[in-house]
Amino acid sequence: MSREIRINGVAASPGICIGKAYLVDTEGVDVIQKFSIPEELLSQEVNRFKTAVNQSRLELRAIIESSKKKLNGHGSILEAHELLLRDKMLYARTIETIQEEQINAEWALKKVVAAVKQIFREMEDQYLKERAEDVVQVSDRILRHLAGANSVNIAEINKRVILVAPDLSPAETSQINLERIKGFVTDVGARASHTGIIARTLQLPAVLGASTATQQIQNDDLIIVDGIDGSVVIHPEEETIIVYEEKGYNFEIFQAGLLRQSSCEATTKDGIDIPVMGNIELFSEVVSVKDHGADGIGLYRTEFQFVGQNRFPSEEEMYTHYRDVVEVMAPKPVTIRTLDVNGDKALSNNQRTAEPNPALGLRGIRYCLSRPDLFISQLKAILRAAAHGKVRLLLPMISLPSEIDDTIELLDQAAQELTSEGIDYQRDVELGIMIEVPAAAVAADLFAPKVDFFSIGTNDLIQYTLAIDRGNSEVEHLFQPLHPAILQMIRQVIRVGQKNKVKVYMCGEMAGELEYLPILLGLGLDELSMNPQAIPAVKCMIRSLNIDETRQFAQEICACESSDAAHDLIESRYGALIREMTTPDPNEVPLA
Ligand code: PEP
Ligand code: MG
Known about the structure:
Layout: E1 5-8, E2 10-13, E3 16-23, H1 42-70, H2 77-86, H3 88-101, H4 105-121, H5 126-130, H6 132-146, E4 161-165, H7 170-174, E5 181-186, H8 194-201, E6 206-208, H9 213-216, E7 222-226, E8 231-234, H10 238-260, E9 276-280, H11 286-291, E10 297-301, H12 315-329, E11 334-337, H13 365-370, H14 372-385, E12 391-395, H15 401-421, E13 430-435, H16 438-442, H17 444-447, E14 453-456, H18 458-465, H19 484-500, E15 503-506, H20 517-523, E16 527-530, H21 535-542, H22 547-558, H23 563-582
Parallel strand pairs: 3-4, 4-5, 5-6, 9-10, 9-16, 10-11, 11-12, 12-13, 13-14, 14-15, 15-16
Antiparallel strand pairs: 1-8, 2-6, 3-7, 7-8
Helix pairs in contact: 1-2, 1-3, 1-6, 2-6, 3-4, 4-6, 12-14, 14-15, 20-22, 21-23
The structure holds phosphoenolpyruvate and magnesium ion.
C-alpha cells in the first residue's frame, strides 16, 4: 500500500529537491506528557532530571566560554541562565514535585516553571518581570536534554538533508550551509517574510507555512520539496520521484537558458533601457548578483551582518564588508541600506527587542536614531566605502521628513570625524529613502525635496497598508500587490518623483515578479531591484515589452476595482508571455 502523503504550503523559493528530512526543533520542546512513576523508580527519575540539568550546565558553560572570546570578556544573559539552573526554586522544587506527586520529570518541571514564572511576573520591578522569559528558556534547555535532543546549530549540520522546522528565523536561514542543505520546509512563514526572501537569494527550494509538516514528517523520511508549486511529498512512490526528478531537471535547464542571456542589457522593444539590479544580504551573495547579470546592487540589507551575532560589528568590520562589495561591483552602483533591524529581524543581543509589537516598534531608522553611536559608525563605514566606487545611501522605515534631516546631520558629523581622523572618504553620495511606510507614500512630496531617489519597498508597504503580517501564512491570501490601494500609492510616488526630478526605484519583491512587470514599467519606474535569481527572467521579459503599450495598460489596471480584476486583465494581455518566461520546457528556452 502506498504511504505517499502530499501537503501544501507557500511556494517560497522555486526549484525541486529530493532527499532525507532532518527535523530541527528551533522552538524548544513544547509537547509534554504527564505520566506517573512507580515508587521504586522515583530515584531513577530524579537522577534523570539531575543528569539533564548537569548536561544543560555543561552546554551553557561551553557556549559562555566560546562567546566570551567574541564578547571580549563581557558577561551575557547565559550566565544568568547558568545561575537559574542551580536556583533552589527551580531545581529543588522540581525534585520535590517528582517525589511527592510521583510524576515524570518533564511534567514536574513544567509545573514548577509555571509557578516560578508567575512569581516573576507579579514582581513590581520591570527587569525582574522580564526574567520570567529566562526561566522558560532555561527549562526548555533542560527539557531538550530530558528528551535526549540536542539544540541544533543550523550552521553545523553536515549531512546532505532537507531541513524541516516549525519556523526558521532570517538569521538561522542565512547561516545555512549551502553545500549541505538541499532545501527546507517550515510549518509557518510566508513568501514575503525575510526567510522566504533569503531562500530565494540562496536558490534553495523552499515551502513555508506547510502547517503540519513537523507533525507528519519524521527524521530520515524521504521527502520531495516542490518550491515551484508549494507542495511537499512524504514517502514518495517510485513513479512520483521520477516525475519530480524530471520537473527539477527541466527547471534547471530552463533557468540555465535564461541565465545565458542575462548579461545583456534589458532594453524594451521601443529602445528604453531598464536597469535591473540585485538585492543582497551578505557579501557572499555578490557572486550570484554578478552571475545573474545585474546592473548593480539596488538593495544591500546590511542588517544581516548584525543579526544572529551577539555583538555589533565595528566600523572597521562594516567598512571592510562594504568596500569589498563596492569594489567587486565597480563601476556599477551599490545601494547600501542602513541598519534595518527589528521587526522580524531581531538582534539577539538587543534587549530592546522585547517589544509587544515589533513590526510597529523601534525598527530601521527609528532604532538607528535612538543609537547615534552605532549609527555614526555605520555611516562612517559607508562614506569610507564610497571612496572605492559608486555608493548610494538608502534609509529604511522613514515615516517623518525630520528623520532625513537628523540623518543628514549625523552624516555631516561622520564626515567631520573622518576628516579629523585623516581617513579617506566620499561625502558626495546619493541619498534615498525606502517608501515602505504608507505615510511616506501618501505624503511623498514632503520627502522629495530632501532626497535624490525613492526606493519603493513593497514587502512592507503592503504589510503596513493592508494591515497583514508579511510573515504569517494565515493571511498570505491578503498579501495583494494588485490591491487598488497599493497600485494607487505606487502611481502617486512615481508622479511625485517625476515632478521633483527624484528617481523612483523599486526593491520590494514585487519588482521581481513577472506578472507585475508590465504595470511597473507602464507606471514609469526608473529601476527595478530583486532577488538575483529573478533577474534573468525579468530581463528577458523586458526585452519583449513595449513601454508605450505598458503605459496604456497600467492606466487600465489602475482603473480595476479589485486585485482579482487586475489579475484577470494581466492574464488576458500578458498571460501567454509570462508562461513562456516561466514554463520549464527544456526545448523552449525563450530567446528575446
Ligand atoms: C521591503 O520592505 O519591500 C524591502 C525591500 O525591505 P525588507 O524586505 O528588507 O523589509
Ligand atoms: Mg522593508
